[in-house]
Amino acid sequence: MAKKKLVLIGGGHAHMVTLSNIHTIVDKGYDVTVIQPSDYHYYSGMGPGMLGGTYHPDDIRFATRKVVEQQGGNFVSGKVTSIDPEKQVVRLENSEQEIEYDVLSCNAGSFVPRDIIQTDSPNIFTAKPIESLFQAQEKILSLSKERPLHIAIIGGGPSSIEIAGNVQQLCQHQGAHQPHISIYAGRQIIAGKPAKIRKLALASLTRRGVKVLEGTYVKNIDQGMINLKDGTSYPADIVFPAVGVRPSPIFANSGLPVGPDGGLLVNRFLQSTAHPNIFGGGDCIYFEPEPLDKVGVYAVRQNPVLYHNLMASLAGEPLETFQPGGSYLLIYNLGNNEGVFCKWFFIFGGKLAFKIKDYIDRKFIEEFQALEK
Predict the structure, then answer these.
(1) N- to C-terminal Cα distance for the chain?
(2) CA–CA distance from 65 to each of 22, 33, 130, 140, 236 (Å)?
């Protein structure tokens, strides 16, 4: 009898426990295939720190291919474009190959929309994929040797303040010309979060020369200009669109049931509402029982349930339900070894906040990097 096939799309946070147990899955007689565009998975929580020079790319990445192959799994380098749930195959970009599955798990992540980009440019960088932040770092250091740059960050969310603060750190520590950094925040920065977070972030950024423009709505980015909806325009040498994230378009493109944001619609078992042998976790899903924020903590919490349910689905055993859990810790990395810490109503900023984040992040990534040994 042919071996049952487990296929994982992506090696992100929600698949970490499954990846660490590939040897167990293989020993039980199943084939395991992991599909990912890169041989490495980068930890998004440390991405801004890599941009700022606090971390090297090697510090924040996980060698997915190596971990998969040394445990007897198959690694396929490629980008998934669609899923055919009837034929039970996954299709890849620029490839005729169809990868068969009996059970499929999706941790395909999310992307930053580029709708406002009128004309593309090599000087426009989004926070995802994380590798693009290292490319941005190289470009900024190269250009800022010659003159002060105008750097624009579009959006007022956590990603915006982390990028702005770490760009400022990068140029200060590398001896480059200090750039003119502007955040075009929309209504205001960190909208929807406690007012104290906004106050602390504003104080840190403005003290270090970052200009925060609230009540500014960007119409488009065109040929090095930030054009606002009120008709005014500003020059920008480097642009970071940071206007939130959307789930991978794979599921909508495949005709699978999706949530309002386009994420794979899953039930309390992290299982597709239409196809019981398709599962998912992380930013690419829409959790039907209750919408979840696009934060890594949920992917981490989904890990053990997703692993259990993949094994149970292969073996025809009962599934476990996913409980999202209560409030979670948020720490923003503002660069310059400063941060903002928030848990429940306990909020503070400064060096200690960053130290706590740095400790937690290093501990997390080192746990999974240990699998590479």
Answers:
(1) 34
(2) 12, 10, 17, 30, 38
Q: 331 near 350, Cβ under 8 Å? A: no
Residue 373 scores a pLDDT above 80: no
Q: Residue 1: pLDDT band by 50, 70, 90 thresholds? A: low
**Residue in 333, 336, 372 with CA at minimum distance from that of residue 61:** 372
Question: Partners of 82 in the beta sheet?
Answer: 91
Q: Which CATH architecture has domain 131-244+329-371?
A: 3-Layer(bba) Sandwich (3.50)
| Bridge partners, 67 (sequence order) | none
DSSP assignment string, 216-250: B-EEEEETTEEEETTS-EEE-SEEEE-S--EE-TH
Q: Identical fold at 5-37+78-111+245-326 and 131-244+329-371?
A: yes
Check whether 119 has a pLDDT greater than 80: yes
Note the pTM of the prediction, 2 decimals: 0.94
Strands 218-222 and 264-266: unpaired
Question: pLDDT over 90 for what percent of the chain?
Answer: 85
Q: Residue 34 in contact with residue 19, Cβ under 8 Å? A: yes
In terms of residues, how long is the chain? Answer: 373
Phi, psi of 28 (to 5 degrees): -80, 0
Cβ-contact 190, 157 below 8 angstroms: yes
Q: What is the pLDDT of residue 72?
A: 96
Which runs of consecutive H residues, i.e. helices, occur in the chain?
16-20, 22-27, 47-52, 64-70, 131-144, 158-173, 195-207, 250-253, 296-315, 351-369
Tokens of 36: 């990912």
359: closest CA among 49, 41, 40?
Answer: 49
Distance CA 254, CA 234 (A): 40
> What type of residue sits at position 259?
G
pLDDT tens readout for residues 289-315:
999 998 889 999 999 999 999 999 999
337 backbone dihedrals φ, ψ, rounded to 5°: 60, 30
Positive or negative torsion for Cα 259, 263, 269, 273:
positive
Q: How many CB atoms lie within 10 A of CB 84?
A: 12
Domain 5-37+78-111+245-326 CATH superfamily: FAD/NAD(P)-binding domain (3.50.50.60)
